[in-house]
Amino acid sequence: MIAGLVVGIRWLVTQGRASGDSAMQILRERYARGDISREEFEANPWREPMDKLDRRSALAFGLIAASAAMVKPAAAQPMEAGKETTLAPGVVQRVYGEGPAIIPNFKTVSMRDIIMQPGSKTAYNPMKNAMVCHITEGELRLVQDGKTFTAKKNHVWTCAKNTKEQAFNDGNVVAVMRITDLMA
User: What is the pLDDT of residue 76?
Assistant: First the structure.
């Protein structure tokens, strides 16, 4: 985020007004990249007037919005698709979808993220089904059937049905655990 702020300020100083790029085009690009949800894109009260804004104004607006998003907990941020549920203080589950599985002994596969704010933890519950877990952002300390390990970004592990697991975000950044559920 800091690097983006530095690059943005540098661009503002050296480039000035850019021709051809409207704020609406930038809003469309942010939507296409997944930076904002469909609801945010469609509900944006500035959508029509943004066509008349220049790139400098749009960048300043974006930096302000990004700063505001950093201070909100994940539970308050709108989701891009599916259902979002608060599981514990500072822990949000975002469900992305489900479909048929072609893996033997499994009928359905689904994907979800567990988004954990710094200092948060999940409950120590048994898993309802087999799953593959992957840390996409941050780092978590995990206790799985009484054994502790650290999962850093891009770490992948599995859980069998009824495995007891608890996750702790001991760091100072948001951690995201992507889970692929394999359901019999």
Answer: 36
Full-model pTM: 0.55
Give the end of a domain, one of 22, 39, 71.
71
Q: For 67-89, how does the pLDDT look when each residue is reduced to its tens digit (9 = 90+)? A: 555 544 443 333 345 788 899 99
- Pair 66, 137 in one domain: no
CB 136 within 8 A of CB 74: no
- Measured CA to CA, the distance from residue 122 to residue 11 in angstroms comes to 42
Is the same domain home to 175 and 102? yes
- The whole-angstrom separation of Cα 89 and Cα 110 is 24
**Distance, CA of 57 to CA of 49 (rounded, Å):** 12
Pairing of strands 164-168, 139-144: antiparallel
